[in-house]
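Query form — protein fructokinase

QUESTION: What is the three-dimensional structure of this chain?
INPUT:
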Amino acid sequence: MLGAIEAGGTKIVCAVASKNSITQIVERISIPTGTPQETLPKIIAFFKNYEVEGIGIGSFGPIDVDPNSPTYGFITNTPKLAWKNFDFLGTMKQTFDVPYFWTTDVNAAAFGELKYGAATGNENCIYITVGTGIGGGVVLNGKVMEGKGHPEIGHIYINQLASDPFEGHCPYHKNCLEGLAAGPAIEARAGKPAQNIAADDPAWKLEAHYLAEACVNYTLSFSPEKIIFGGGVMKQAHLFPLIRDKFMELLNNYLPIKQVDQYIVPCALQDNAGIVGCLALAEEALKSIDRRTN
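ANSWER: The structure tokens for fructokinase are given below.
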């Protein structure tokens, strides 16, 4: 049995599935993200009901993903103060002595979409979630991209349009992608939530422009085979044609993107991308152990 933990800012989802059928989840629970002291006992109690052989954890961040760091496995400088500098991975290891895969929630979602979703059959993809914030995960050559840190591609700088006087919503960068295009930025400009904005409102062309500009940057930087969008804002299906058209205009035939409707796509796993990705990463953790012992 494989275990998965998708740790988000408002809720933590735990799930188990058979190694032979990862997408067929045996049981899952959702726990409000309280303090670690409130939340971890509930996570541990859930997994004690099963004989898990490996656990994949995708966590909100920032997190330390450097195995050589003394704070590897920690949630670090998070605005959720109760979790700041908390040893998430170490706490789990104290109870469950199994292989772990530790990464960000968006990296897990990217891996889930690669293995079982919109990027199945490919080796490279980017997953972007656009909601209260903007986060991104990268998979290259079949592996989650990490180094001394993890990608923060939701905070790349964007060439803000002169016609857009908005100051930007990100407290760190103002006019980064998150600051200009996340849900709060859309709402601040329009004076109402994104889901209440009409499909033909000019706000969506502006949103599409910034997301398309980001896609150009990702294309030039990572050469993905798929760019996959998820999150609450991207449930506005009319955004996708606008993003694709603007993307092709901005790219200006510099690279051969032949079927843009198959290149910039919605997530296939929907709200299950992260938890399925965590299960798939648990499987990767087990495979890594097998490779080292054989």
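ADDITIONAL NOTE: The two ends are 21 Å apart (CA to CA).
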